[in-house]
Amino acid sequence: MEAMAYLEPNVEDFHNPWDLPDMQKAVERILSAKENGEKVCVYGDYDVDGTTAVSILVDYFKSLGMDVMHKIPNRLIEGYGMNIEAVRKLIDCGVKLIVTVDNGIAAKDEIAYAAEHGVDVIVTDHHECQGELPKAVAVIDAKRPDSQYPFSELCGAGLAFKCVQALEEAQGQTRDLSNYLECAAMATVADIVPLQDENRLIVKMGIESINTDCKNAGIQALAQVSNVQEVTSGNIGFVLAPKINAAGRLGEADCVVDLYTKKEAVQVNQVAEFLKDENEKRQEIEAQIYNEAVQAIKLQKKYQEVFICAAGKNWHSGVIGIVASKIQEIWYHPVIVMGIDEDGIARGSCRSVEGINIFEALSGCSELFETYGGHEMAAGFSIKEENIPKLESFLKEWAKKNHSRINLIKKIYYDGDLSENDIDWELMDCISMCEPYGVKNPSPLFRLSHIHPEEVKTMGQDQAHLSFKDGDFRCIAFSQGKLASALLRDYDEGIDVLAVPKVNHFMGNDQIELMVKNILIPELFDHEKCWQYLKILKNASDAVIKELPIWQYDQKDILPNREETVWVYKMLKKYAENGVKFDALMDRNKTLNCFKLLAILEIFNEIDVVHSKLKKGIIYSKIPKEQQKKDIKKAELVIKLKRNIN
Question: With contact defined as beta carbons under 8 Å apart, do 198 and 158 qualify?
Fold first, then answer.
């Protein structure tokens, strides 16, 4: 039964909305407001989930003939959640009932203030409960400690849809709710909640409705301006949702409600075009901040620290989270990006890596923050500019005590091995049966071994992406353009890749492509991994060093011999003035690999024989004028290598 519900979900698989805590109370109060003609406000959030949840309830309440308005706080001015000033304005507008979506579980003071002024509040939220529940008329949250609901991971829009289901049933209605299901599917994917149980049902049925007989004109318009012919969980997450999110990031979230609730094509087309433009603005702002942050990190060598911190004046607080995520992908370190406003307050966004609890780290210096919050992998805070150096100093010491650099080596888990002959349309049919994919239901990731890439080329803006062929299949690797030169090298055993097989629909033709998530060139030729291993060798304890994967190789592959060391010294001396290409040295001396060459450079720097720097693939060297004879065998790095090899 579970397998059939997974492969072929239907409307009967929805859980009973009345099992959600306080649903009965909420429905009774909403229908009372309808009967008495009371003014109702739906109070949401500025992200995709919050704006979509607002849209679902606003549109549904209007369909009941209710007097309804909405409130979405301005991200740049008000921040997240309810605030007293906003509640005061709603009271002045004559609002008698506030229904929160995607927020409210922590708004105890604001809800108490509303109650003091004769305004009832219904909370619908999916965030964790913090201590005592707010004194609201109803608190609908599947994460309540007393909740009996069988699934606790609905997003805000998913909860809004459940409220609509309950209200329909209470009124004896059996109307088509596909419009709201389509909206909830968009938000469920965008909010990165697990695509399991009821979430999977919402997304699968919602996407099917969008692609067969779309009821929501706004979703249709957004897909059209985005050149999306068939909506999938993938292009919701990477193409459609970012456009909706852009409005909230730049302080224009109210227009999303127009997108979802307007019925006329002209109106929704205008909003869709506006969202497209807003997203392009967001991308420009993001790119500028990203470039400035990366440049500062490289210039100040912040990448040498466990926590990579970057701060800039007037960096837009709406995009620093995206920038932090992108920087984390470059170095695979915990990253903190801070935008400092005119009042000297920095707003920070944090992204961590597996094994390093960013929220725990921030909690250790909570006195430095004006506000902070988050969880193990992501967090946010505000801090006075003068406290930023104290924060960086604390994190440096915290990292020394609480983590191993082995956490900075990324682990990727895959589902199985495939050969080129295994990839056919039958396999693609099997893969499609398990859609939609997302959190806790990821696309199957396969390892393909001994590939010899052909037609290697970079593509996209700034040539950031990579394309190559493996036999009959085109392979696309986003954000891995820097590996192009490495793929041109001829490796005896070829390379391995981790890839997701996808069907590319283009100009009426369907082709199978491999979306490459990771390229495993031979480890001792991987610049980034070798740098990581050498950092650990230099700084970590023997217990940590012994965990490194390099010890699987022969001694000759990781310990430079005298002939190699002398040869590199001569080359560096010969080309000291103009520099020499790193890869060129390996091409000219086939006994060298990336690890050994980097090790030699480190050894030379350590014993003061050659001072060298590697910039953009070129080694620049300086030979000290006065030199005494040095014994390379006494270099600390050589000693550590020998000790651990033995």
Answer: yes
Quick: pLDDT tens for 137-157.
Answer: 999 999 999 999 999 999 999
Neighbour-count burial of 512, counting CB atoms closer than 10 A to its CB (0-12 exposed, 13-18 middle, 19+ buried): middle
DSSP for 188-249?
HHHTT---SHHHHHHHHHHHHHHHHH---HHHHHHHHHTT-SS--HHHIIIIIHHHHHHHHH
Percent of the chain whose predicted confidence (pLDDT) is above 70: 99
Helix (H, G, I), strand (E, B) or coil at 391: helix
Contact predicate 44/51, CB 8 Å: yes
Which is higher by pLDDT, 409 or 392?
392
On the 0-12 / 13-18 / 19+ scale of CB atoms within 10 A, 509 is: exposed
CB within 8 Å of 477: residues ≥ 6 apart: 465, 466, 467, 468, 483, 497, 515, 516, 517, 519
CA 186 to chain centre: 17
| CA separation for the pair 243, 222 (Å, rounded) | 8
Q: What is the mean pLDDT of residues 180-188?
A: 98
Q: What is the mean pLDDT of residues 188-200?
A: 93
3-state secondary structure of 482: helix
Question: Mean pLDDT score of the chain, rounded to an integer?
Answer: 91
Does the structure show a pLDDT above 80 at 437?
Answer: yes
CA distance 318 to 336: 14
DSSP string, 491-523: -TT-EEEEEEEEEEEETTEEEEEEEEEEEE--G
Q: Identify the DSSP state of 303.
A: G
pLDDT band at 646; cut points 50, 70, 90: low
pLDDT band at 1 (very low <50, low <70, confident <90, very high): low
* Contact between residue 612 and residue 601 where contact means Cβ atoms under 8 Å apart: yes
The band of 129, judged by pLDDT with boundaries at 50, 70 and 90, is confident
Q: Walk me through the domains of the chain, giving residue ranges and CATH numbers.
A: 2-277 (3.90.1640.30), 300-406 (3.10.310.30), 416-521 (2.40.50.460), 527-645 (no CATH)
Report phi then psi at 447, rounded to 5. -100, 130
User: At 324, which helix (H) or strand (E)?
Assistant: helix 320-331
End-to-end CA distance of the chain: 56
Residue type, 264: E
Collapsing DSSP states into helix, strand and coil, what is residue 259? helix
Half-sphere exposure of 53 (CA within 13 A, CB side): 33
Cβ contact 296:302 at 8 Å: yes
Residue 509's beta-bridge partner residues?
Answer: 506
Contact 124, 26 (CB under 8 A): yes
Quick one: pLDDT band at residue 318, thresholds 50, 70, 90? Answer: confident
Distances from the Cα of 539 to the Cαs of 305, 545, 554, in angstroms?
A: 12, 9, 23
Secondary structure E strands in 25-79: 39-43, 67-71
The DSSP 8-state label assigned to residue 393 in this structure reads H
Residue 31 confidence (pLDDT) above 70: yes
